[in-house]
Prior knowledge:
Blueprint: H1 2-19, E1 21-37, E2 41-56, H2 58-64, E3 70-78, E4 85-97
Antiparallel strand pairs: 1-2, 1-4, 3-4
Amino acid sequence: xxxxxxxxxxxxxxxxxxxxxxxxxxxxxxxxxxxxxxxxxxxxxxxxxxxxxxxxxxxxxxxxxxxxxxxxxxxxxxxxxxxxxxxxxxxxxxxxxx
Length: 98
């Protein structure tokens, strides 16, 4: 019994410790705004972020740091007559846990 119990405890402790390690969340966010009508233009903005935490498990780290890829868009408009304009902004975030 002791011959099986001690190696099992050692293996379990190694597996538990190895799950907790330094985690890094790297995100790249691209925002593109397309304005049509009066003052028509296209604007693109790219930003990057990086967060590192020690001794974390992967899934709890992803949720605590909100390390998920995401994409959304929204519209806006204004003016009237010859100065009417509308815009569509698209935001895409690509995140990865390393």
